[in-house]
Amino acid sequence: MAETFDAIIIGGGVMGASIALHLARRGLGRIILLEREALCAGSTGSSVASVDLLTQHPLMAALQVRSLYAFQHCAELYGDQCGWVQTGFAILGGEDARDGVREVMRVIGEAGGKIELLCRDDYRHLDPACVPDDAPVISWAPHGGYLDPVMLTNTFTNAARQLGVKVRQYEPATKLLHQGDRVTGVRSKSGEIAAATVVVAAGPWCADFLRPAEIDLPLQAQRHSVALLACPAEASPRTSVFDAINLVYARPETGGLTVCGSLDLTMGYDNIHTGDECGTPPMAYGMWVWERLVARYP
């Protein structure tokens, strides 16, 4: 006999955990979250987790500003911390970036966020190791930063459990059950689970899971390699930065490290199948990122 819930959430990353918690807070009823491995085993556990204010879409801007507030007040809102670190967030661009940056500033400003344009000297005071001489356009979001995505997921999950949400790890959903156009639940490794609402928050696995139900999502899984560099403090970024000229991003990390990677979609972004192993990024990629970061932080 099938178990019965009001909602099933598929995916135990930060999205699935957040959805489960907020549906429970809305009083949806009996909710279960299914995760194929351990919580944060997918994209969440490998996330750079930078929190920027960078969009020209009003709905995305509103979501970013609300999310920023939630991260800043995580313990107050959700009962525990998310590892929030405020570094500020800068975009360094050429003259051709000016119109786009101004549009971002307008959209984020209308959503309640704060972004301003800085001159090079002002930015040097914020990030002394940076040499921005070739960047006539510098935008600055003082409230940007980064967080710990695993800590945030666990905070959401623990708060959801307190509201009665069932969380089952190592319980993969294998099939979406439906009668005609009406969803009736899912099949998991331990049997059928009935629910009128199924939320698929499985990240790169969404398309594979839904395809047998003749739901075709135009999603392609990608592997993005991230570099972690150890450098002297006086030569390292103090802020989170998108360098649109050298096509790299970087942010500080605890332990004197710098998390960085490519903004060039032809370097460090590889189409993969969801079951492929990611492995260790090649040294050539690390050198590509290093050379460009040294150009900005000599």
Oligomeric form of this entry? single chain
Determine the number of helices (DSSP H or I, runs of at least 4 residues).
Answer: 8
Taking all Cα atoms into account, the compactness measure Rg is 21 Å
The structural class is: alpha/beta
**Strand runs, count:** 20
Topology:
Elements: E1 3-4, E2 7-10, H1 14-25, E3 31-34, E4 50-51, H2 58-72, H3 74-78, E5 85-86, E6 89-93, H4 98-110, E7 116-118, H5 120-126, E8 137-141, E9 145-146, H6 149-162, E10 166-168, E11 173-179, E12 182-188, E13 191-194, E14 197-200, H7 206-210, E15 222-224, E16 226-230, E17 240-243, E18 248-253, E19 257-262, E20 269-271, H8 283-296
Parallel strand pairs: 1-13, 2-3, 2-14, 3-10, 6-17
Antiparallel strand pairs: 4-9, 5-9, 6-8, 7-8, 11-12, 12-13, 15-20, 16-19, 17-18, 18-19
Helix pairs in contact: 1-6
Q: How would you sum up this structure, described in words?
A:
The protein is α/β, with parallel strands linked by helices and 298 residues long. It has helices at residues 14-25, 58-72, 74-78, 98-110, 120-126, 149-162, 206-210, 283-296, and strands spanning 3-4, 7-10, 31-34, 50-51, 85-86, 89-93, 116-118, 137-141, 145-146, 166-168, 173-179, 182-188, 191-194, 197-200, 222-224, 226-230, 240-243, 248-253, 257-262, 269-271. Strands 7-8-6-17-18-19-16 form a seven-stranded mixed β-sheet. A four-stranded mixed β-sheet has the order 1-13-12-11, with no helix packed on it. β12 (182-188) and β13 (191-194) form a beta hairpin. α1 runs parallel beside α6. The longest helix is centred in the N-terminal third of the chain and has 15 residues, at 58-72. The chain is elongated and about 70 Å long. The mean pLDDT is 95.
